[in-house]
Structure formats: structure tokens, C-alpha cells
From TrEMBL, chains A, B:
The lineage of its organism: Bacteria, Bacillati, Actinomycetota, Actinomycetes, Streptosporangiales. It comes from Nocardiopsis lambiniae. Gene3D superfamilies: 3.30.420.40, Winged helix-like DNA-binding domain superfamily/Winged helix DNA-binding domain (1.10.10.10). It comes from the Bacteria. This is ROK family transcriptional regulator. Belongs to the ROK (NagC/XylR) family. Residues 21-62 form the HTH iclR-type domain. Pfam families: HTH_IclR (PF09339), ROK (PF00480). InterPro entries: ATPase_NBD, ROK, Tscrpt_reg_IclR_N, WH-like_DNA-bd_sf, WH_DNA-bd_sf.
Amino acid sequence: MSIGSGTVGLRTVREANLGVVLRTVRESAPCSRAAVAAATGLNKTTVSSLVADLMARGLIRETGETAQNGVGRPGVLLALDDSSVAALGLEVNVDYLSVVAVDLVQRELTSRHMPFDARAAGPDESARHIVAALREVMADPSVRGRTVVGAGIAVPGLVDAPTGTVRRAPNLGWSDFPLGARTDVLGFPVRVDNDANLGAIAEYRVGSFAGTPDLVYVTGEVGIGAGVLTGGSLLRGAGGFAGELGHLTLGPDGPECSCGRRGCLEASAGIGAILRDAVPDLAPERPLPGADVAALVDATVGRAAAGNGTAVSALERAGTRLGQGLAALVNLVDPGLVLLGGYFVPMGPWLLPSCRTALASGVFAPNTGGCRVEPSSLGLSAAARGGAAGVIHALDSGALPLPEAVDAG
Amino acid sequence: MSIGSGTVGLRTVREANLGVVLRTVRESAPCSRAAVAAATGLNKTTVSSLVADLMARGLIRETGETAQNGVGRPGVLLALDDSSVAALGLEVNVDYLSVVAVDLVQRELTSRHMPFDARAAGPDESARHIVAALREVMADPSVRGRTVVGAGIAVPGLVDAPTGTVRRAPNLGWSDFPLGARTDVLGFPVRVDNDANLGAIAEYRVGSFAGTPDLVYVTGEVGIGAGVLTGGSLLRGAGGFAGELGHLTLGPDGPECSCGRRGCLEASAGIGAILRDAVPDLAPERPLPGADVAALVDATVGRAAAGNGTAVSALERAGTRLGQGLAALVNLVDPGLVLLGGYFVPMGPWLLPSCRTALASGVFAPNTGGCRVEPSSLGLSAAARGGAAGVIHALDSGALPLPEAVDAG
């Protein structure tokens, strides 16, 4: 039976069922077809057909072992096939590209982090670099030979996810750029999303607090954004623009922001602002195109660790501002957990205490509403990792982009 | 067959199916049992049994008409029974109690609005007043004889909805008060929730913008709170404390707030603050216990309409502050629609222009992210209306608190 031969309705049901079986094997492997049938309520013939399909697509495999479960023939055990497919994730940010490939069990196959001046390159040249970086990862020995099932690309700005258009990314200098369309040459599905949203997905799927349904991931780059998960789902908002934490106005007299307004949180607590305050002799006045942000962050952390007063007090001030911004977020959204990502991670020892103090004093609910603030465990690859994790998650939901197979049933 | 005789699992499935049938009749009435079976995928015998149960509970009725649908016997048409049950809603706020009763089709049966000084009364005496007010509505000729299926009570503060405990309501002076338990004497289920949450539910179910899945309802009382709906569901947050818009800090130098901090939005844009600025010769210095807030609001609106500069500029300033607070909300949550409720409605003509201007200048997404700000059509009864609407909605979800009936099947 060809899978594509049914009606649209049947096709959709079958896709959903493929996802159900894949998810069941992910959760229960190793498990027999009979166990899958019992867990899902699908009948055994249907399960056998779906399993054959998923095997043909390289998503599940027989382990070679059997299990006796009650009477009847012993069941051949199934597991996820971690050798056949790969999902890619990429983040483009002000000063770097980060790329990662993972297998079906979300294990990292390879990752790269490369300095890249996206603002100087401009959107067209950046899109070419992005395509080249993804192809380079596909050629890596750990990925070559696998079927790439899709890629997720993270951009620091407002993204219209359904069309893959970057609406407004002031720190990159991009607006209304159809990045998704520029990646059509790759030949597999590419989703473009906001970097903070993908960071939150990464935390939920593979971070140290994986499985926490209400959490916020905060990007710590030149820009500050928040990816908000409520009940395990991304809070996107009516127009897909939720989570613009960096552009909360803390006061109209604050410094000028890349967005053209004054007093935005990221203009005083984004990495560019921190570096200018913490290592004024090294950091350029404003903004930071072409600067080696990673090296400046290293210098800041080094000086703070050595007790340099300028660096320490700059980090503490930024932590206070960040806590004030997070207080607004916690008052409005009440997440149980806020994870600070990106360059905030190495700066955490000096940022976090003042951040937590300001948060506690700004939150109306008793005891900060129970909300914790912790550093992310995913570092600068969080958003790329979330891009790849989202592709794998989409498979579990039955969105199978692989060529349709003819099953044996 | 007695409904209570099955296992817990079967009981739950039956309850869910009762809700499905009730919802289907709500959406498609008048409709036959066969049409319900076709729409739900349930078999006709099951539908007949569920319909008998719902009729025994006074939730659906036969209209007395029939419809020929294909071959076979003509089907007797069903509709919601709008004569047998009632749901109640009540809001307790700083200066009033508002009570409403609705029927199964969400039509208002009766409503009352009475001045009440909850702060002076204290929580215990207030609870007695609440019970008395609900009993008074039950005795109204439009309600008497109906089965009351439940009540929803709105409180301006942090509420632990599952237990019905008011955690913190500074404008009432209550903390950790088990209001839900105090209403057990009523003999029907009572849910206690935050006033803004219930206002948002009212807007979604019966307001002028009903059906808008992403909206925020803002209470305009002495306190300011936000009820946030995303995708048609309340955003409650990890601890149930989301939406504390009134306690966003606009600046550390702002006026002192009832919560003990400085610079909260409601300390400069809540109704108490507006009245002190707008009609300083009439309004008490601070706070407003015992003041006739409604009369002061009338005076403010009267003077503003007459062009009184003090009143007009006080309202414009409050509108600007409100817009600044809403900008934080829109940047973080991106609702498509914000509805200003309570006393903000009569003040709207002078508040709204400066509010919209401040919002537009504070939102990062282009064109305010497409977000509109409009006055609520539900006035001071919004939260009470939402309390009742929530009870009716719970019926549609299969939470049927009526005594179990023995069906004829």
C-alpha cells in the first residue's frame, strides 16, 4: 500500500499515528509491536504497518532481541534508529554562527561555533554563509550518509515563523528579509524562528531543567530576548511577537537602543552595554560591529574574577537592571524558572546575585512567586540546539518530511 | 443504569461524553439525536442514553418539533434547556459587590450592584455578605425554582484557585483567607478566582469581542490587574499568579502602593490615584476606604466632560502611565486586543488617546504589534459575569455538579 494513496483525511490520520508510534517507541524502547499496540490502543495490524513505514524511513529499527510477553510468539524488540537521520540547528547572531547536528535521540553529532559579523555581511551574504555552514556540517563524517530531516534557524529578532521571514532584527540590521526562502536550495524543510523561542525549546527538551513546563529562556547576547514556555508550549502571542524582554522600557532617560528608542533593557543590560561599562578601555563606544565579543566577555570575566572594581560593579549594575526587567516578566507571566543564556552564563557569578535581589523586590507575589533564576547549561549553542530539537519534535508529531516509503503490508 | 455504578475510568469517559453532547447541542440546536451522533462520532444508543441523562439534569430539552433527515423515523429536535438551571457570579471589590445570575445559554437573568466596603468589613464579615448576596439572587423570581449549578467569585488579588484561598489582596486588606471554604454552606460548587481572570473569561464568552483567542482584560478599579488569554486559555503561570499588571514598577520614585512598594502602575493609574489627581477637592488623600468611588468617578467624568483642566490632565497622565504598563505587557505577551474594564470605561474618552500613544511608543513590534486597546462592553459586572460564564463553560466540559440521575436506557 502506498501511503500517499489515501484521501487527505486518511493521510493525516496515518501521519498522526506514525507520530504516535514513534513517540511511544521513544518513550518505551526497547519494546515489541504488541507493547506499542497495547500502549496506543491501535490494533496490531495497524501498528505493524506503521512500524514498517517508520523502519523504511530510517526512524525505528529492530534491536535483534525478543521479549516474551504473555502467550504467543516472542515479540521482536524495537528502538529508535539513531544511525539513519540527522536534524540540524543554526543560530546567526551579531558576532557568531553556531551550528549543530543531532540524531533522532537528540544526541549531538557535531557542533561548530564560528565568529561571524552578520551586520557587516548584510542579509543576502549572511544567508549564503548560513547555507554554506549547514552544508559544511552535512559533510562532517558524523552526519554524512544520514538523511537530513530538517533544520531550524534561530535569528535574534521578530520572525514570522510560518513564512520564515525576519520581520525586524535591529541588532543585525535586517528587516523583512525572507531568510526561509533563501534556504530552499538545501532541499529539506527549514524553519526560521526567534533565537529565544528556540533556546526555550532546547531547555525544555535537553537542558538541565528539561521537562519543566513553565520556563523562560533569556538570551544573553548583544540583544536580550525571552522565549516563554507555558504548559510546555511556546507563548507566541497573537502576532508571533511575544517575549521582547530586551525592549521593555526601564526608564525614558536610559541609553539609546538599537531600536531607536531610549531606556530599553538591552541598552543597559545587553552584552554590548555591559562590555562598554565593564572594560571601557577595550570595548568600542557603540555599537559593536566587528568587535570580538567573545574575547571581550573573556576579558570582563577575567577582570571580575581578579576583583577589578570597574568590571564587578558593571556586572552588578547590569544584574540589577536585568532583575528589574525580569520582575515585569514574572509579574505578568509567572514562570517557575528563568534560565539566563548566552554570555550571561560566564558572567553569572557577578550578575546573578544582584539580579535575584532586584527580581525579589519587584515581584508582587510572595517569595518571588516561587520563581528561580539559574544559568543555562546550554551556553552559546542553546538556540541552535533548539532549532534541531524542534525538528526532531516535529517528527514525533507526525510531520515526517522524508520521501514516502512503500511498506510491506 | 445508574451513572454512578461504573468504574472511575468509565465514569470519566461518560462525563466527558456528556460534555461533548451538551456542547454539540449548544452549537447546533435545534438538532436531532441522529445529528448529534453524526457530529460527535458517538453511536446512536450512546447518544440516546447521554441525552436522557442531560434531560434528567435539566440541561437539554426536546423542542416538540421533528426533522426528517434522510430515511427512517423523523428525529425529535433537541435544544438547550434554558429554563431549569442557573449559574451565579459575584465580584467583591474595594467599594462594591456585583452579583449576576445567568441561564444555560449565558443570558443574564438578573444582576445587582451594591456599594460595599470590603476593607472595613474585613474578610469574615465580607464572606457572610457574599453568601447573603448570593442567596438574595437565588431568591429573585427569575432564579427561584431553578437548580443553581455553581457560582464563580471574583476577588482583586492573588487567588489559589484550586483551594479557593485568597493569598494576597492588599486593596481589600486580606491575606491567606479561605473564602472558598466559607461558601460551603451554599450547597453548590463555588470557584474563587482573580477578578481580572474572570473578566477575561467574560470577554471571551460574552463580550463584544467574544471569541478572540488572544486578549487581555484589564481591571480598572482601585487596583489594576490583567487577565491574559492566549489561544483561548487563561495564562495562569506556574503558581497561578500571572497578570499582576498593577504591580509593574514604572519607576522607583513613583508614589507608594498598597503593596508596600513604590512606583507600581496602580499607584499612579489605579482609580484611587486618578481620583486624588482629578478631583482633589472631593477625593480623600489616601487610601479610599469608605469613599463612594462610583460618585467620585461620576464627578471626574462630569468635570472632564465640562473641560475642567485638572480632571482632563489627570486622566491624560493616567492614560500615559497605563500605556507604559501595557507596553510591557504587549512586548512580553503580544495579545491582539486589550480591553479596559471597570471605571476605565466611563473615563475612556480621556484615558484612551494618551494610553494608545504611550503604548505605540513603547512597543518594539511595528505598528504596536497590531494590538488594539478598546473599552470593555461589560462595565462593572465583567468579573461577576465571568464567574457565571466559567460555571456554564465547566458544564460544557463535562463537569456536571447536579445530582446524578437515573436514565431510562
